[in-house]
Amino acid sequence: MSKVILVVDDSASVRQVVGIALRGAGYTVVEANDGKDALTKLDGQKINLVISDVNMPNMDGISFLKEMKQKANYKFTPVIMLTTEGAEEKKREGQAAGAKAWIVKPFRPEQMLQAVSMLI
Amino acid sequence: MNLDGALQTFFAEAEDLLNSMEAALLRLDEGDKDMETINEIFRAAHTIKGSAGLFGLNDIVSFTHIVENVLDRARDEKITVSGDLLSILLPCRDHIAVLVENAMHERANDETCLAQGQALLDALKPWLGVAAAPVIAKQESNASAGFFDGNTGGSSDRDSWHISVRFGPDLLRNGMDPFSILRFLRTLGEITHITTITEHLPEFNDFDPEQLYLGFEITLGSNASQQQIEDAFMFVREESSIKIIPPRSNIYAFVNLIQSLPENAQRLGEILVKSHAITYQELEAALATQKNQAKALGKVGMLGDILIEEQAVAPEIVNAALDKQKKNNEKKSSPENRFIRVDAERLDKLINLIGELVINRQRVDLLASKMGNPTLIEAVTSMGNFTEAIRDAALTLRMVPIGDTFQKFKRVVRDTAKSLNKEIELEIEGAETELDRSMVEKLNDPLMHIVRNAMDHGIESISVRQARNKPDSGTIKLTARHDAGNIVIGIHDDGGGLDVEKIRKKAITNGLIEEGVHLSRQELFQLIFHPGLSTAEQVTNLSGRGVGMDVVKRNIEELQGGIEIESEMGVGTSLSIRLPLTLAIIDGFHVTAGNIDFIVPQNTILECVDLNSLNHVQGQNCVNLRGDQVPYIRLREIFSLQPGNHSREKIVVVQFGEKRAGIVVDELHGEIQTVVKPMGPIFQALKGIGGSSLLGTGAVALILDIQQLISFAINREHLRNNAFSVNIQEQE
Question: Which residue of B91, B266, B424, B700 is surrounded by the most CB atoms within 10 Å?
Answer without folding.
Answer: B424
